[in-house]
Amino acid sequence: MTFQQVYGYEPTVRYSAPGRVNLIGEHTDYNDGYVLPFAIDRRTVASIGQRDDRVLRVASAFDPSSVVELTLDELDPSRMHGWSAYVLGIAWALREQAGADLSDKRGFDVFIESDVPVGAGLSSSAAIECGVALAFNDLWELGLDRKTLARVGQYSENHAVGAPTGIMDQSASLLGEQDAVVFLDCRTLDTAVVDLALEANGLEVLVIDTRVEHAHATGGYKARRESCERGARILGVEALRDVSVEDLPRAEERLDDETFRRVRHIVTEDQRVLDTVRTLREDGPRAIGSLLVASHESMRDDFEISVPELDLAVATAVEHGAVGARMTGGGFGGAAIALVDREARGAIADAVTSAFAAAGYREPTVFTVHAAQGARRD
Ligand code: ADP
Ligand code: MG
Description:
- The protein is α+β, with helices and mostly antiparallel strands and 378 residues long.
- 40% of the residues lie in helices and 21% in strands.
- The protein contains 11 helices and 13 strands.
- Helix 2 crosses helix 3 and helix 4 (146-161) runs antiparallel to helix 5 (168-175).
- The two termini are 19 Å apart.
- 49% of the residues are buried.
- The structure holds adenosine-5'-diphosphate and magnesium ion (MG).
- Residues 44, 60, 62, 83, 86, 112, 114, 118-119, 121-125, 128 line the site of adenosine-5'-diphosphate (ADP).
- Residues 44, 60, 62, 83, 86, 112, 114, 118-119, 121-125, 128 line the site of adenosine-5'-diphosphate.
């Protein structure tokens, strides 16, 4: 399916935006902490035709039989359903969240295609939102900057789609640069692009998708958030971001064992993000391996969001020479990443696949990602 086949004419422009991988900094976002994602070389492309009326039509290669239609006067989350909310919600959020005046604007025909795996924790959702947000911002000449568009994407996902997510995914998808990570302070929303320099160091990032569905993700995610809030309340801070590694011995005296371990993960993970940024700047990517492994151990033992498949992927990758590895994303399934020498990639991928077979687990999907440029007009 193509734009031409759906709408019967050629599109005027194409915009694309990438999915993302989080290098380190897990569950720190809602604790006002730090994250370090990068945009990947898997993108969603939005082909767009400009219309003379106020109609917005959206279609996806994903679901080519249904074309969803709404006018710019009807924009409201109650009228947005299923995947099309990821597109239509952006127009609504540009008005609602960023204050754009759409009263004199014309509509578009939009066609979405993507090679970002859906639901693998690589944020196919942000890839749609950010490509569309950049396109609408340009074509409607709204003049909003990329940080504002990231907030628009998050607002749309929270209120039009109805998923309570942070701003990491959109920040990575809009601000990512080739062979670099995006350092994001989730309290101030300050960002900095930090060189990853994998290319120059002969390294690559392998994604090992365990294909374990995030079965307990919703319940587990909610419970972890509650533990973090409880910890912050008892410690008398606004968010766990305000607790440092030096404060942990005192925190241990005041918290029950489980809450303390949840808090310790967040506090040490924030520190690991800061250490990773400093290490990348001073010593390069080969030196961050132990930070990745420590992050995984903290999620496995303290935050308890790993699963045996993720632990096996990480242990096998490290045993077979990975510089470092960790589960990435919200946990309870999903993917792990491994930082590997380019030449070792095949052997490590094979070792992980064999280990999964030997353990009787479902075959994982293993592929390489590169840190890529953020959303752009193609
Ligand atoms: P993730 O962002 O981790 O891939 P999400 O559940 O946040 O998972 O987003 C996946 C949803 O985004 C899909 O269920 C679908 O509604 C929408 N989506 C992603 N890619 C496409 C696409 N190419 N076409 C239409 N909808 C898509
Ligand atoms: Mg998503």
